[in-house]
Amino acid sequence: MELKNKPDAIVVGAGAGGAAVAWRLVDQGLNVLMLEAGERFNPSRDYKLHQADWERHQFPQTQASQGAVTVAKLDKLAPANHDLMSWNKSRGTLIKDNTRQPAGKGYIHVQGVGGSTLHFVGESHRLNPASMKLQTQFGVGHDWPIDYETLEPYYIQAEKLIGVAGPTEQPGRWRSEPFPLPPHPLSTSAQALVKAGSELGMHWQENSRAALSRPYDGRPACNYCGNCSRGCPIGDKGSADVTFVRHAEATGRLTVKSLCSVIDFDVAEDGRINSLSYVEAGEKHHVAAPVVVLAAGAVQTPRLLLSAKSHFMPNGLANRSGQVGKNFMETLFWSSTGIISEVANTHMGLPADAICWDFNSPDAINGVVGGCRFYSSTREMGFNGPIAYATRSTTGFGRQLKAQVREQFGRAVSVGAIAEFLPNPQSYIDLDETKKDENGIAYPRIHSHLTEQDITRLRFMAEQSRALLKQANATLVEEYGTFDYFATTHVFGTCKMGDDPSDSVVNSECQSHDHPNLFITDASVFPSTGGGEAPSLTIQALAIRAADFIVERFASNS
Amino acid sequence: MKLNIQRRQLLKTVGAFFMAYGLDIHAENLSLSAPSKSETEMLSAFVDVLIPRDQYTGSATDCQVDKQIWSLAESSENFRRLLALGCEGLNATDGPSFSELSYQQQYKLVSWMAESDWNHVPRRFYEIVRQTALSLYYAQPETWQGLSISVPPQPNGYPPPWN
Prior knowledge:
The complex is a heterodimer. Chain A is an alpha/beta fold. In chain A, 23% of the residues lie in helices and 19% in strands. Chain A has one domain: FAD/NAD(P)-binding domain (3-Layer(bba) Sandwich), CATH 3.50.50.60. In chain A, strand 1 (9-12), helix 1 (16-27) and strand 2 form a beta-alpha-beta unit. Chain B has a domain at 38-47 and 59-141. Chain B is elongated. The N and C termini of chain B lie far apart (41 Å). The chains are: A alpha/beta, B mainly alpha. Chains A and B meet through helix 8 and helix 9 of A and helix 1, helix 5 and helix 6 of B.
């Protein structure tokens, strides 16, 4: 694909942050070149939900859809914490030795046009404002250099473009305008959690979702097949490809080049990025633009920066602070699933349709700083079809196994929980020089460590989830968590935002402290994770805000 | 090549087993050879004990699960070897082969395998073949009889109400 115009900006990565910054830039008249290492999926061809064997297919995995990554040796599992081991009724304890293990590659993501929004369930959350000032208010972690009020107008813009469906109010987060669309109806599994929760004094409500509850912006309403994570074939889910990228391409000013891997940067003496190099189909190309935006996620973005070492930049690009790769924060997750004989059809409806924010504030859990949220997770956990029941919630074999599947199907109810993760010195990204990709770039290596505080949060989530399911008269059949599995969908912090150039990588506008025309618009800039909020909406709000800054400062010069 | 994630998990699990069990996965006799008549009879009988016919739906072999398992083994030496070891184990007695035993005798033997040591071939063969067979079996709509699902989730979805 030839470029129609000389780009005013190059955006690396087509996920939540790359798509949003590109949309905003082209919307204001700039020409943007977007380079994406993954491919462009064709939903009607690549997603398998219409096939008889649909349940055997997760989101399609191809060589290009997975970024190179290694995981360093993980923690030993202390016997005192074995109540947090993952298990199911069919297989018992899932990890048979005493070491934490990565689930698959450990970093669960998608490379492609749309990035990980292609397989996310599409929760659309604003951060709890209190989670943005952890250092000031609680003496832990890091503060954001901006506050909720600064982000609020950009949240509104992102929600409108996506068509977020949500309730009138959410605790802890004021809104200047209502959600664009009304909330989705609650599934039978969510209703069971709402009822049991109210009996325990918990307050559950409809979740805010990047899925259409009404036709909107030329996209159809959700038909509640329950399988967002396998890829939405009808386009109601607000993944970045059908929202930001679609609108940006419609302007004629965005050029998207997929299957292009950025490998190097040319830096001028004054610190500006002159150009970058990328490989497409085995051939190396160079491209220059006044502005470069990195949005490859909190694992691949630090990899690119750390790899770009030179005589003048021995620590890599944008890394005079030494903070690139540090402060890695991951997903702290728990889910309990039970069978409730009184409910039916729990495979139907929107995943993550109900949420409880009661414990979301940083001081909500006794004995530890950092909150969490609970949500309805039956369909996200994959209890969508008979294979899940047959292989996870049944025992034995023979006719009695088949009878169990018939008795249980449609009656699984899962409660999930995600919590704050505070940075610790043993959690970071570096380069694994022993493994290099086809372009000679070292793999990023994830170091992950759970502190006692993380264990405390996990135990709180597990005990509350069990209490909730017990109240709902459920028989537990599976529990899964990140105590024994390293399984992170949300990654944060590896290019931290801050006012102090000696202690952060970018400023409050997502601009590199070291390179004035280099910006980063993914969750690597997050100083804190929030109390379990899904990050995509905040990434997009930050990216839109960064684009406005870029237009104001750079477009006039060019 | 797009690889089914469940097949990835299967291959990883089988590989981990051979590593843990100290078996040489690169041994010369490891080939992707077609199964022998004895092996096909053994596996067919085994999967039909796991998933027998009942009043609602057919057995594993009625749904070609055994053939699909052999098809999967064509591209994985580890899985092929596990099947070979498992079938060999099922046939290791001096008496009749597993496929010639009565259903009650077969059931008793599989029950023993299901309770045996996790790190030995009988249990690992039972677990991996069970997991694989169930995934292949319930991927076929004719096995959904009696469940509140009759067609794939798309293109119709599940419009409410759901109660």
